[in-house]
Amino acid sequence: MSVDGTVDRRRDVQAMIGNGNGVVAPNHSTHRLRLNPNTEHKPDSYDNLQLEYSPLLFSSLERYLPPIMLNVSRDVKVQYMREILMKYSPEGERNRVQRHKEYRQKIMLNYQPLHNELYSMHATNFFVPSFLKAVNDNSEDSFRSIISEAAPGIFTFEMLQPHFCELLLSEVENFERWVCETKFRIMQPNTMNKYGAVLDDFGLDTMLGKLMDDYVRPLSKVFFSEVGGSTLDSHHGFVVEYGIDRDVDLGFHVDDAEVTLNVCLGKQFSGGELFFRGVRCDKHVNTETLPEEILDCCHVPGHAILHRGRHRHGARATTGGHRINLILWCRSSVFRELKKYQKDFSSWCGECQREKKERQEQSVLATKLELLKGDENPAW
Ligand SMILES: [Zn+2]
After folding, report:
1. Which residues lie at CB < 5 A from ion ligand 1?
2. What is the pLDDT of residues 14-44, one digit of tens each?
3. How far is the CA of 354 from the centre of ligand 1 (A)?
4. I need a surface site. Which of 18, 39, 42, 182 has the fewest CB within 10 A?
5. Can you list the domains of the chain with their CATH numbers?
């Protein structure tokens, strides 16, 4: 190795140019990531790429790239970073991600959207003015002015315009008609709902990502910061359908989400209330409900219910008509990583809180007993 590193640099450039058959990313066994991020470097945006990981992860990782990589094309950087990230996901998971990507591509190639205006964010056409204003003002006061907190951590507010709800319902119907006609086998929205569709799978992914980034995250940052509300970075968006000829009710469960947005789109229905039973961590998910944790929430078309994904809930039977809800599960990779190293979730789990209080009371009692003992046997 030369003293000034000239030879090494030449080899680096050679590695990037490759053999002339295209762009070759340098091999990371010879290029280590930096230990500290280059905070002055402005990373590329990875938003418009179909990647296995969140675009945010790529722009954050870019700051750790070896200096020589910072000015190469985005494609080279993506290839290099993907190779690194792939090492962190097990093969089964990688195959699943690849299969799902192909599944989505197949739908997108064949499905013809009905209302193109739904596929990118048009805030003034989608949201009611009061909601838009509150989010633009972006303060706890502005949010509180439009929401009601039915119980701690359960927020309801008017959100979607009736016209938007109609368009989305008609797009979903159009998609379902296409599925039926082409006999395309689609995935169900989640493990519990049989009726409905994953909106992300037929092109609404970008719009829903924007909905999370610009409209759900600001609220979650204020109200759900202890469960990663400010670092939400991926979502799963779907509609669920209830009625006598659809799913009727939904048992008590928690969502695979840090924050859940649940908006009723219509149509005419009776029943179908959402019931809540307290927030619980993984360990305490089946523990008893305290009387103050019991709450029922009625659905109103256009109105949203925002809650922690770990807030145990279910849906009562829809006794008449047809009810369709838009659900956006919002997740934080940062929160999920940090959670692995924690045992006490008393900042949000009702049972962890109760246990902590019990421990504190016992410790106070033990101290009192000690003091009393001291009184009985005064030191001479
Ligand atoms: Zn707990």
Report:
1. 281, 284, 345, 349, 351-352
2. 333 333 333 444 555 556 888 899 999 999 9
3. 9
4. 39
5. 6-88 (no CATH), 116-339 (2.60.120.620)
